[in-house]
Amino acid sequence: xxIHVDMNLxxxxxxxxxxxxxxxxxxxxxYLLYDAEPADTLLDQVRxxxxxxxxxxxxxxxxxx
Length: 65
Ligand code: SF4
Prior knowledge:
By secondary structure, the protein is an alpha+beta fold.
């Protein structure tokens, strides 16, 4: 799948990191890092992270059916 995080919206709340730690992480300055093309096996985690994001910054752009 492909995902996008709107970094203008992201406020480093970290819910996505908690939900999908294999995809989202923080650098040393709490700036969000993420894998823009994570494996489709992580879709449930990514969906949960997107659902939990309080500012709705995460968009899932495409995934296998
Ligand atoms: S949950 Fe949303 S606001 Fe928080 S770090 Fe993730 S993308 Fe950013």
